[in-house]
Amino acid sequence: MKNTLKLIFFVLLLFALFVSLRMFIDVAFYSDVIGIKDVSILGIISILFTVSAFLIGCVIFLENRHPSKTLTWLIVLGIFPVFGFFAYLLFGQNFRRKRMFQKKALLDEQAFLQYKGHEDYEERMLRNHKHQELLFRLADRLGALNISFQTETRTLTNGDETFQAILDGLKRAKHHIHMEYYIVRDDKLGTEIKDILIQKSKEGVVIRFLYDAVGSFRLSNSYIEELNDAGVEMIPFFPVRFPILNDKINYRNHRKIVVIDGNEGFVGGLNIGDEYLGKDKYFGFWRDTHLYLRGEAVQSLQLIFLQDWFYMTGEAVLAPEYLQAKAVEGDHWGGVQLIAGGPDNKWETIKHLYFAMISSARKSIWIATPYFIPDDDILSALKVAALAGIDVRLLMPSKPDKRTVFYASRSYFPELLDAGVKIYEYEKGFLHSKVVIVDSDLASIGTANMDMRSFHLNFEVNAFLYDTDSIRKLVQDFKDDLEESSEIHVDRFHKRRLHRRIVESTYRLLSPLL
């Protein structure tokens, strides 16, 4: 309580100081720039923005956010009232979030319960994977769909392998194709996919395509119109016309889903674009991980897509022919479970499952992620695991695609290294995989990065694997990636230049907002 009062007093003092400071700056420097000579008008404008920033600060307190995010927003609003005011309107609002997603959450829950099986999957899971019982029960409580022991899985480790499999699958389609992507490019790969979809539509295949309106903002209207004219239903997810007035811009659909005839599916880290085939000169080879599924678990992937489709279009597509995935015979496949995470969830689903995976480890925790901005829970869990002698390894890219996130990620390295976490930087090209492997018999592949945006804001989807052959392939892939990487040594990293430390620390301060 005492610390809370101190923080409130500090924030109030900070705002009081900057009210006068901002008034002085506005009057002294900005009058010529904005063309207002009347000092009283400038003073009123300055006070209005500062008071607005103060009121937003009060709202942030009342929303009971994560302490680090709360403090970051308050600092931004205190130092830059005008900028902070608009930045918060654009990126920081939480007060409309519950109302915005309340209907979707209810519909999702109803649909998931309707198709939640009552077979002996739980008994089998607890019988064959007793040591993972707590994780399984957590996933079940968080809204995970049925675990399947009759689904074939195959990992795909680069763009060429992944898109060859996807293109072949699209060509096999007889009844329907469902696709959902964050980024779609109008380039060679995008055109190849478009041509196949147009051809399949002519053959009578029903095609539904969701694309994120912000992630795919460069996608040409002609690309979309050509598909729509051919009978493909291509719909944007959360279109944003007035960004500053529309808080939907902050909640993006980061999922990458392909479902073919309800029995084959793909999920993972690869968007649609030539750079994901390694054709970008800066990135070079693009190292990513996708998962191919055939069998029961595809029904779960299908349901996630159909719920998103209904949310955007109002069209309920729950006919039996869409939700009758065929079981793959055999007892050697292991378990597969699909998890949907997003701002519409009551809980931070994927983050909680990552935390549970890390906490359940007895031997090893291997993580590959392009972005590493954990919250305090995940960061502490990793450090505690390493201090307890568990083999904790973090694999990240050696070059940035987003400099702010890259340097913010590196700001976490010193404390991880001091705790005994081994950190590697991938040097063959750009690493974009989102993979977690625990004890070589539990893994996650999907769209969620190890960062706060994936935990709190984005719509994500991950496949959790229990003792499958695909996990053994993931382990070998991780070892192969380490051969193409350099290890960061704690002594050398602590000696990095001062300006680099300053940059990292600055972005670390803003990391809850990235």
UniProtKB/TrEMBL annotation:
GO biological process per UniProt: cardiolipin biosynthetic process
Source lineage: Bacteria, Bacillati, Bacillota, Bacilli, Bacillales
Q: Which NCBIfam families match?
A: bac_cardiolipin
Could you tell me which species this protein originates from? Answer: Bacillus toyonensis
TM region positions: 40-62, 71-91
Limits of the PLD phosphodiesterase domain: 249-276, 427-454
Q: How does it sit in the membrane?
A: Multi-pass membrane protein
PROSITE patterns per UniProt: PLD
According to the UniProt entry, what is the EC number of this protein? 2.7.8.-
Cellular localization per UniProt:
Cell membrane
Its cellular-component GO annotations read: plasma membrane
Q: What does this protein do?
A: Catalyzes the reversible phosphatidyl group transfer from one phosphatidylglycerol molecule to another to form cardiolipin (CL) (diphosphatidylglycerol) and glycerol.
Give the reactions, separated by semicolons, that this protein catalyses. Answer: 2 a 1,2-diacyl-sn-glycero-3-phospho-(1'-sn-glycerol) = a cardiolipin + glycerol
Annotated GO MF terms: cardiolipin synthase activity
EC supergroup of this enzyme? transferase
This one is known as Cardiolipin synthase
Concerning Gene3D superfamilies, the annotation shows: Endonuclease Chain A
UniProt-listed PANTHER family: CARDIOLIPIN SYNTHASE, CARDIOLIPIN SYNTHASE YWIE-RELATED
| Annotated catalytic residues | 254, 256, 261, 432, 434, 439
